[in-house]
Design a protein that fits this description.
The structure holds 2 protein chains of 2 kinds. Helix content of chain A is 39%, strand content 15%. By secondary structure, chain A is α+β, with helices and mostly antiparallel strands. The longest helix of chain B has 17 residues. Classes of the chains: A alpha+beta, B mainly beta.
Amino acid sequence: MSLAVKSLLVVAALALAACNNPDRYGAGGAGGAGGPGGAGGGIDTTGLGDPNNPTSIAYFNQRVGDRVLFAVDQSTLTPEGRAVLTGQAQWLMTNAAYAAIIEGHADEQGTREYNLALGARRAAAVQNFLISQGVPANRLRTISYGKERPIEVCSTESCYMQNRRAVTVLSAGAGV
Amino acid sequence: MRAAFQTLFALMLGLSLTSVTPVLAQNAPPRIVIGPGVIEPMPIAIPTFIDEGGAGEYAREISRVVQSDLEGTGFFRTIGEEAYISRVTGFDSPVAFEDWKAINAQVLITGAVSVSGDRITVKFRAYDVFNGQVMEGAALQFAGTTQGWRRMAHKVADVVYSKITGEGGYFDSRVVFVSESGPKNQRLKRLAVMDYDGANVAYLTDSASIVLAPRFSPTGDRILYTSYESGFPRITLLDVASLARQSLDEQQGTMTFAPRFSPDGGTVVFSLERGGNTDIYTLNLSSGGLSQLSNAPSIETAPSFSPDGSQIVFESDRTGSPQVYVMPASGGEGTRISGGAGRYGTPVWSPRGDLIAFTKQNEGRFHIGVMRTDGSEERLLTASFLDEGPTWAPNGRVLMFTRETSGAGGQATLWSVDITGRNLKQIPTEGPASDPAWSPLLP
């Protein structure tokens, strides 16, 4: 591991220790969606690193693939999804310094409550698969956003299929 | 009574309009019987309330709110002042009933307002014009602070509505909801409360974390909702007066949501997810005792107590698609009551106990509907791209719900509809809004 990456990890771990709130969508969170809420809250910073570096978060997100998609109302993993998750499991076992929050999401077709439960079911399907592949359970947590955080905003199947997803979000730190 | 109701609903099936029947029999008080048929709303007169000292704009504004409340039901039509033959010059002056009869006003509401410092007094009389008498129980006086002037107007309208329809009032009530802003993929949400008609908005939380589906306690003093403040969805209790809030269940690795109060306010029924499976639980607010009511590998969510507290209606996808079930308050498998095509969710028991409102999704459209508590006589009241989450007015006659438009610019708004399907209308809000929940009638 290069010195640069090591120092990056130290910084990221410090940031994580400062704020263990996984809600990267809240106005106080760090992810792409940190909104103009005006409310307080610290800013988590986790370096993504170089996608060419196989130990970087960028590599995990882009090369391994950070998400799997689901059919309408389903939480069953597709063959494509299982292939992505097999890669995620291998990466997580190789890079033991990372933990992950698995976010379950639903498309907007459905009531708020049902979609929360459905998102949780999808996140759990991913978690269970990763554990079955050998990832220690104490490095994984799940959260459901139901239909609250679509990634695509149109109201047709081309967007819905991208929104019915479970995303594995890495954070530095051996356990969550 | 039950047979009569069934006949009534059977007759209404297939009708898009239901009527209000002003019964005009001599010597019978003005009465609206809500039933089948198409009849004009009852004409009434609400002359601007008399200023009995210091009332200024309050007299005019209070009259305006009384008019807005009554007309807003779809059951009344106020006669414009330009048609008046006589004027009301004093609250206790003799009423020229012939002049009001001549313009066909069936009910005349007179009132007076006085203000001293921050104290306001509102009094009113509702007259049965054709009998030339004050309607029984419809001559009252309300006093309070000027800040509460709209509530006094709502109380006047509630009394009149109640005397004429025989139904409970619902105007003097509040609605808690989620105020929304920001684009669809990073929506900011915060809790807000307003009068039932959209006035007097106050914000209860900031938008630092997602908040969902608030519900009032039976006395309106507390609000349950789902908050992501901890990073994970948690049922949260908010004290309306102090705005103090507490997370109710913090078991690591679980997620809690969809909370509602029991009718006595002492218990919360909600969904708890563990390991991907969602079941229904209750939490006793005084003892902290947790009980699991459902135990199935399917999703069980959106629970709502019957008003007598003996049963719980909820949604489950155990058959593969979400449907509505009823179980004893002590728990169990439940009996399916929804039978039509499509998916059913968010069932809510009427405060009158007679109906269950729900969200239905079928063939790409969403509907708000009602059914009897055994699932019979389903009636769909609305249809749109996305309607969901009905909440009952305190009198069990009107529903409010969320309507969201489609596409990238899609936004949520609040709407209400009568349980007959009449009088669908949008509730004015400052910005996008969702997840309304009606308070009980205020004391």
